[in-house]
Each structure stands twice: as structure tokens, then as C-alpha cells.
């Protein structure tokens, strides 16, 4: 279908698609991304089934958490972006979870030692002291983070060659957990192949994952998008690699 659309039509489609929530189904048939071998949802669900009180930090629209088949008796989630709050509350209603607004880098609005499990998938920042504070002794933090240099190929194409920040490196991730008093039990990384089959998919992705190219608009990056469109037309899908870090850590007794 997209092959029949010209550049301006594809840009218009990517601009018009709604980006509320954390559901990427609009990209079906237009972009693909490999899944990590560790299976975050399956592994997280196994831990949720054993938990008594759990927290999902930066839940987005709750799309991932909503797939947990056996939630714990107490289940909470935080989200910072106001448009996502209503989506998350609706998605998590069947799990009887409560969703509260909380800044990504601020204080978690819970008493100390409330949860025996804290999870997060792709947090924008990680407030390690707060995670350690709300965990019970013996409690677990289990998360899949975005790693350093994720989609760097797309970033460099759009913005020119950019330095790769090491703030999201595995060593920084482990160091942040340990500095907060947690013990790292598992730390893994994986690079995942992403393919963008049309420029409209790129526009949608950059509007939704807005920290990839800060300040992105299709208008301000018109020339780069035109070059990308020509590249896809002549050479096939644009390929980038997302970086993922799996971490599991516990709070000592």
C-alpha cells in the first residue's frame, strides 16, 4: 500500500497518526523490530505471579502491564505524561491496578518499603534512590532499559553524526543500582534490528519516541526526510539497531 503513496502523502500519514499511549500497532506492515531473546513480558509476568505488591514505573498507556495474566493483590503504576494517564487507567482497569501521575525523575508517591517488586519497560530516566526506597528488603527491581546508542543510525541520518552518550551503558546502569544500595543479580544487553519500510513510519516513530531526535517535526526535518524517502525507494528499508539492557537487582535484607 505504502509503495503507491508519494512522499508528501506518507509524511501526512505519519503526522496524522495518534501517538497517545505506548501502542505501536500503527507501524504494522510499515516497520519491524526484533524482540529481545529474554522475553521481557513473559519474565515479568512470572515475577508478577509471585509478588504480593508490585509497581510498574513509567507504564506509558499500560499496554505491557495489561497483558500480565496473574497480577498481585496490590498493583500500582506511575506515568508522567497526562494524555497517557487516561489510557493507562482504562487498560489496567481489568487488573484492578491504580495509576498515579509522577514525574519520571522525581519522587515516587508511595511510602517506603511498599513493594516487593518494581518493574519498568523503557524508562526515560531511572530514579534509583526512589526505587530502592519503595522496595521492601529482599524486593526485586526487574526492568528492560533502552541502551546507549539505540537507533543511532537513524539519529545520525537525521541530525548528522552525534556522540553516543554512555549514560545508558550497562556499566552506568549497574553502577546506578549499586550506588542506591541494590545488588545486581542479572545484567544483559542485546542489539535488535529495526527496519523502516516507508518515511511515514519514520515520522510516526520520531513523533512518538520524541527523545530520539529532540524537537523533531516533519516540517523542520523536511530535507532529511526527503533524502530518507529516496534512500528507501532506491535501496530498500532503512535499517537501524535498537539497544536493550535487561537488569534484575534486589534490595538486601
TrEMBL record:
All copies of domain Methyltransferase type, residue ranges: 55-142
Protein keywords: Methyltransferase, Transferase
Keyword set includes Methyltransferase: yes
The keyword Transferase belongs to this UniProt entry's keyword annotation: yes
One family name in Pfam for this protein: Methyltransf_11
Protein name per the record: Class I SAM-dependent methyltransferase
GO molecular-function terms, A-Z: methyltransferase activity
InterPro entries from the UniProt entry: 23S_rRNA_MeTrnsfrase_RlmA, Methyltransf_11, SAM-dependent_MTases_sf
Biological process according to GO: methylation
